[in-house]
Amino acid sequence: MTGGGGARSPAQAARGRRQKAASLPLDVLVDIAAHTDPATFVRCAATCVDMRCRVKEYISLRHPLRLRQGDRFVLPLLRGHLMYRSHDWSEPKEQLFLMDTSAPDATKLRTATGGGFPLSSRDGLVLARVGAAAKELRVCDPATGRSMTLPPEPAFPRTWGANYVLLVSDDDKGGTTSVGRHFQVVKAYLNMSEYGGYLHLQFQTFSSEHGAWGLYTETWLPYVQCGRLKRSLDKALVTGGAVHWLFMTDTGFYVLKLRVGAAKVMVTKLPKGFPHHLWEHQKLLAASSVGGDVLVLVADDDRMSVWAQSKHTAKWKQRPHVVINMTETILRFLDKEGGGCIPPTKPVGFSLVSFAEKSGTVLIKACNGFFWLDLRTMEIVRWFWDHGVPYTTHNIPYEISLTAWVPTFSSTL
């Protein structure tokens, strides 16, 4: 019709409706996304550069992230692992390396800022022993290079060693410490009583908020009476708001649970069917989800078994929950990825190195290389193998926090 007064096409009508529809400001969209789940929040930040900038600004202003479904593992939070090299005859120097495996095609090995012997790592921060004769404790952030040296640690009575755990605040109220966020360091030791064969847990906590070590606490472990402690506190697992350790006496294996703030302990004994050999079967604590139930991983030849507790009784089940063949798992991954790490014979011997609590992955050493096993899928997701890597004596996982990852993630993630 002359003058353009004719009826519009369906496409024109739809375009007009979209133009009339009110669009929400980016600030409002970011605030909505901050109340969703981690995956949705990250997808929101990935939509465009403007949204990414608003997310970064939102986090920098220390707005709280009220994310739901926070118990889901987020694999990209795994940055890699820290590798400590002790001095040897060829080069008498101790170094700490960061093996960055965040991108399989861009694996990097670099010296970690702060150095020292790594004791614990959590949410992007690392607790290490540094200084002359390694007498100082220091918390550092390898990403920023910032660090904080702790005041002299207290000496426990009648002990020669202790277990250290780094706990990082989740409230994002950082900025008041040199490393950005508040943290706690738990120093713990399992001690045999002089009378009656009972065990006592000694622990003391440093708080960055108060800048000092707290009171010394010694508490008796209930339901544990033994003649000899055969294996003291092993690598710590932090889940469900508590610290967990695996230890062994002449009566069996136990899992110790400590709620630091309340100074309460709980002990559960592994069942009769659990492999109680001290050296033949390597064991490692893991979690079913972020903040979820405790699992015990056991390495037996080329198999890994997963032991779980009953949700109704909290008692350990008599049989493993899952058993996987690591030879088939590793060979399947190497066959897909290629490379020169394929072993000439079977079965593949492996060792359990450590568990990353936010990504839900297990660091495994096999075939002269390192592999990351995803506990959700029971498949290898990353690996590293290089003849040029110096000999290392200690390896721990290195993960970053969600708030540190979101503003810096790339499109490849």
Keywords summarizing the entry:
413 residues, mainly beta, Neuraminidase, 2 domains, five-stranded antiparallel β-sheet, 38% strand, globular
What does this structure look like?
By secondary structure, this protein is mainly β. Helix content is 13%, strand content 38%. It has helices spanning 10-20, 26-33, 38-45, 49-60, 326-337, 402-405, and strands at residues 78-85, 95-100, 108-111, 117-122, 125-130, 136-141, 146-149, 163-168, 183-192, 198-207, 212-213, 217-225, 229-231, 237-239, 242-249, 252-259, 264-269, 282-287, 294-300, 303-307, 322-325, 350-356, 361-366, 369-374, 379-384, 394-399. Strand 10 and strand 11 form a beta hairpin. Residues 18-22 have low confidence and may be disordered.
How is the secondary structure organized here?
Elements: H1 10-20, H2 26-33, H3 38-45, H4 49-60, E1 78-85, E2 95-100, E3 108-111, E4 117-122, E5 125-130, E6 136-141, E7 146-149, E8 163-168, E9 183-192, E10 198-207, E11 212-213, E12 217-225, E13 229-231, E14 237-239, E15 242-249, E16 252-259, E17 264-269, E18 282-287, E19 294-300, E20 303-307, E21 322-325, H5 326-337, E22 350-356, E23 361-366, E24 369-374, E25 379-384, E26 394-399, H6 402-405
Antiparallel strand pairs: 1-2, 1-26, 2-3, 4-5, 5-6, 6-7, 8-9, 9-10, 10-11, 10-12, 13-15, 14-15, 15-16, 16-17, 18-19, 19-20, 20-21, 22-23, 23-24, 24-25
Helix pairs in contact: 2-4
